[in-house]
TrEMBL record:
UniProt xrefs under InterPro entries: Aliph_Amidase/BUP, C-N_Hydrolase, C-N_Hydrolase_sf, N-carbamoylputrescine_amidase
Molecular-function annotations in GO: N-carbamoylputrescine amidase activity
Record-annotated CN hydrolase domain positions: 39-300
Protein name as it appears in the record: CN hydrolase domain-containing protein
SUPFAM superfamilies referenced in this protein's UniProt entry, alphabetically: Carbon-nitrogen hydrolase
Keywords: Hydrolase
Pfam family, one: CN_hydrolase
Gene3D superfamilies: Carbon-nitrogen hydrolase
GO terms, biological process: putrescine biosynthetic process from arginine
Protein family: Belongs to the carbon-nitrogen hydrolase superfamily.
Superkingdom to which the source organism belongs: Eukaryota
Length: 334
């Protein structure tokens, strides 16, 4: 009889405030979901999948989302990108560098280490990192015993209207990494990383069994007619399907207004956090207005067998991919 190794993953979604403590407590605390909730259990060819979706009004804070996900059986729980506060990259302001802190003795990371150990869950924690005179958009992966498994620094740094991250963040220097947690080998990309199929493939080549993407994405102020949410989801669904691994994406909700040198700037974050299965299918999907806890269970042994039998890694031709080492497709040495 084939062995079975099941892992339950979760994506959290909530609106952030300007107060760090409020946001951290929102991520941590538990609540009884008395509003709109549903529980779905169904079978697909690779796994028994359970999807729990709980939503509450976005202005209700302090609800212990990590603890609530744990109560629903989650082993690995993803919190959205830079969840300690508003998405400050709307503006280029020196004051916001004060938000950065070194990884060591970081108060939010220490708190999440304590929480992970208490609940025996894995938590990737996004934060604004200061490292001497460098600054990074980073994630620390905390194992189920509270151990800090290491750091990933965001590789792809965007620079566009209201997403002015190059002002704050150095390009990540860790390279793509996997983290051997108690429950699975996982890989983490951060927001803009999720648009690059090369990154997803590299992480899975390193051995990742599940991909995680904490995110902050919403409206595009330069184009009122542009709504990228479906494009955003389809790209990552493609990563899941192309690599035959589950994928978890967590995004924030709510309107955030930042004072800039040119007046007030705002982004409405569209949520739509989701969990995709290894063929790219949507297992669970939040909406654009409410706090959510998405939970899905995967049999990683069945998925591994399917990935191996499908042949996508057997039939790769790395010798033909040198063009990927160029910026413009020229000067290829084959």
């Amino acid at each position: 009889m084939a062995k079975s190794w099941t892992v339950t993953v979760s994506a959290l979604q909530f609106a952030c405030t300007g107060d760090v403590l409020t946001n951290v407590e929102t991520a941590e605390r538990s609540y009884h979901c008395a509003s709109s909730a549903c529980l779905l259990v169904f079978i697909v060819d690779h796994a028994k999948v359970l999807a729990f979706y709980c939503r509450m009004n976005q202005n209700t804070f302090g609800r212990r989302l990590v603890r609530a996900a744990h109560k629903k059986g989650a082993n690995i729980i993803l919190i959205q990108e830079l969840f300690e506060g508003y998405y400050f990259c709307q503006a280029q302001k020196e004051d916001f560098f004060h938000r950065a802190k070194p990884c060591k003795e970081h108060p939010t990371i220490l708190r999440m280490q304590k929480l992970a150990k208490e609940l025996a869950v894995v938590i990737p924690v996004s934060f604004f990192e200061e490292a001497n005179n460098a600054h990074y958009n980073s994630v620390v992966v905390i194992d189920a015993d509270g151990t800090d498994l290491g750091l990933y620094r965001k590789s792809h740094i965007p620079d566009g209207p209201r997403y002015q991250e190059k002002f704050y963040f150095n390009p990540g220097d860790t390279g793509f990494k996997i983290f051997q947690t108690k429950f699975a080998k996982i890989g983490v990309g951060i927001c803009w990383d999720q648009w690059f199929p090369e990154a997803a493939r590299a992480i899975v080549l390193l051995g990742a069994e599940i991909l995680f993407y904490p995110t902050a994405i919403g409206s595009e102020p330069q184009d009122d007619g542009l709504d990228s949410r479906n494009h955003w989801k389809r790209v990552m669904q493609g990563h899941a399907g192309a690599n035959l691994v589950p994928l978890v994406a967590s995004n924030r909700i709510g309107k955030e207004i930042i004072d800039t040198e040119h007046g007030k700037s705002e982004i409405t974050f569209y949520g739509n956090s989701f969990i995709a299965g290894p063929t790219g299918e949507l297992i669970a999907n939040a909406d654009d207005k409410y706090e959510a806890i998405l939970v899905a269970e995967f049999d990683l042994d069945k998925i591994k067998s399917k990935r191996h039998s499908w042949g996508i890694f057997r039939d790769r031709r790395p010798d033909l991919y040198k063009v990927l080492l160029t910026l413009d497709g020229s000067n290829i040495s084959l």
